[in-house]
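If you are new to this repository, start here. Below is one unmodified record pulled from the training split, so you can see the exact layout before writing a loader.
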Amino acid sequence: MRFAFRFLVPLLLLLALIAWGASAVATRSARTWAERDLKARARLVLSGTRETLVRNLAAGDRAGTRVLLNALVRDERLIAATVCDRNLRTIAKAGNLPVQARCEGRTEPESDLADGLDENVRMAGGDVHISWVPVEDQGAVIGYLVLVHDLSFVDRRASTTRQALFIAFGLVGFSAAIATILTARFSRRSWTAELRRMLPGLLRGGGPMRSGSPADFGPVLAD
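And here is the target side for that same chain:
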């Protein structure tokens, strides 16, 4: 039985290490996929609203832009949005914006934002993904659509995946433990039965074994 435990302890430690590593890889992969998805979603939002944004920016229509942003943030994953003009002045906003998503909060030169910008920011309620998407008209940047997406769903999904992995590896470890214990027990019984079968012949065979008696092997047989 001690041999079985000497085998089981390293096995369970190895399974726990594999589960931890797999959960870390799964969490990192889920975060990467989510960031790519949110980046694509931000460009898709701009594609659907570009004509309205161009018209509102050209006319300086703050009220119309605010109505548009309020409609956008109804999405459960989109928690805030704002529109900036090309000089990084706020035209309209909706929701609770972190500093990095505010028009006046950026210090980069205009050229750094011309191709768009995506970054993750930690807020009190969790991580968010900020997308700065340039609004172009006839090839010139006339403003920016800034979207703030909630990343907490990624953490929840990663937590669920991590729990599932630990449960799965726990079941594997439990099954391996049962199989190892049963194998050790059956092997021991087989060895004991073989010893019982051979012992009488050894005792009758002469030599050093002749001076022994069955009582000398009592502990072994009892074991």
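Two things worth knowing about this chain: Residues 206-212 have pLDDT under 50 and may be disordered. Residues 19 and 166 are 6 Å apart (CA to CA).
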